[in-house]
Amino acid sequence: MSRIHISGIGVVSPVGIGKAEFFAGLEAGKSGIDELTLFEPVGKCEHAAEVGEFEWKEYCFSKQTYADRCTGFALASARMALEDGGVGLPVPEESEKTGFCFGTMWGCAESMEKFFEPVAQGKGKRASSLVFSHSYPNCPTSFTCIELGLRGYSTSFAGSPLAGLWALRSAFDAVASGACGRVVAGAADALSHIRFSNAEANQTLPATAGLTPPAPGGKGWDLWSRVPGEGAVSLLLESDESLAARGGSSLAVIESILDGGAPDGDKVCLHRADAGSVTALYEIISRVNSIRKDGGAEVALGPEKTGFRVHLAL
After folding, report:
1. Which CATH number fits the domain that encloses residue 134?
2. C-alpha Rg value of the chain to the nearest Å
3. Is residue 92 classed exposed, middle or buried when 0-12, 13-18 and 19+ CB atoms within 10 A define those classes?
4. For the chain, what is the domain count?
């Protein structure tokens, strides 16, 4: 079987947009948590990990009038991963087909809320058909594929904190089976009022009013680790043949993705099954960066009991 390479990384994060800014933010110990500005606070939580100064239209090739934050994050991270891997964009129709596998927990909840708000107020005629078309959980996938010219294998996963891992597994299988020479595996979630309201109803939203977030891991961090956040990450996966044909460079090799089982020996378990799609992929690319700095030992990524295990070997 052809080896599966990670040849590009794209990140939209509260600690930095783009691979360089993201890793610099991690090394500087940034948490990305600050006062909530996107909408009025819910309950006693007045903070969030927001992506600042983000404009989704900068990542479009065509003139678009609307996209919610989740779709914009997905588009931006996928484009950055492809550009990081040296793939020309938008991908020409005659070139090798590129796929996109995407996962999200909350999907386009922001668009759902915008569409149903006038309906709930008894003003259904004011509901926007454009916004409604962007409320489906597969909208980030289709929007990104159209904008970037991705005509290969694509699929969407939604409604689970493991959706991003399912997308990664699907992309890996597509490349490994020869169905597609290169596939972007991505995950994204955006902040929305409905997410905060849901967390408040389930009593999982922390009370942060009047408090100041500490440094990550500092005193009181357990409280702040439950503050909602947003972001996206994409990994460009390629076969040996695809990478060689265009003279691309490999950042890492994914040797296997296995269902279940704990990492063996001294290999490192990086995420739990409930860690969330974006968090899981953040941890993968963060570890790719540390492996490169350390000179190359193999590291296993996986949940302690269920889910996936990813071996990265450089």
Report:
1. 3.40.47.10
2. 19
3. exposed
4. 1
Range of the domain at 24: 4-251
The DSSP code sequence of 199-242 is HHHTT-S---TT----STTSTTHHHHTTS-B-EEEEEEEEEHHH
Q: What angle do CA 166, 170, 174 make, to 5 degrees?
A: 170
Output 220 or 67, whichever has higher pLDDT. Answer: 67
- Give a yes or no: residue 274 inside a domain: no
Whether the CB-CB separation of 192 and 12 falls below 8 Å is answered with no
Query: Model confidence at 287, in pLDDT bands (50, 70, 90)?
Result: low
Instruction: Tell me the CA distances in angstroms from 54 to 27, 51, 107, 287, 300, one per residue in order.
Output: 22, 7, 18, 25, 33
pTM: 0.83
Taken in order 43, 32, 280, 104, the sign of the CA dihedral is positive
Calpha distance 92→254 (Å, rounded): 27
State the DSSP code for 46: -
pLDDT of 307 strictly over 80? no
Given a cut of 60, is residue 296 above it in pLDDT?
Answer: no
Q: What is the four-CA torsion angle of 177, 303, 271, 219, rounded to 10 degrees? A: 180
As a whole number, the mean pLDDT across the chain is: 83
- 195 part of a folded domain: yes
Backbone angles phi, psi at 145, to 5 degrees: -60, -40
Determine the distance from the C-alpha atom of residue 286 to the mean position of all C-alpha atoms in its chain, rounded to a whole number.
13
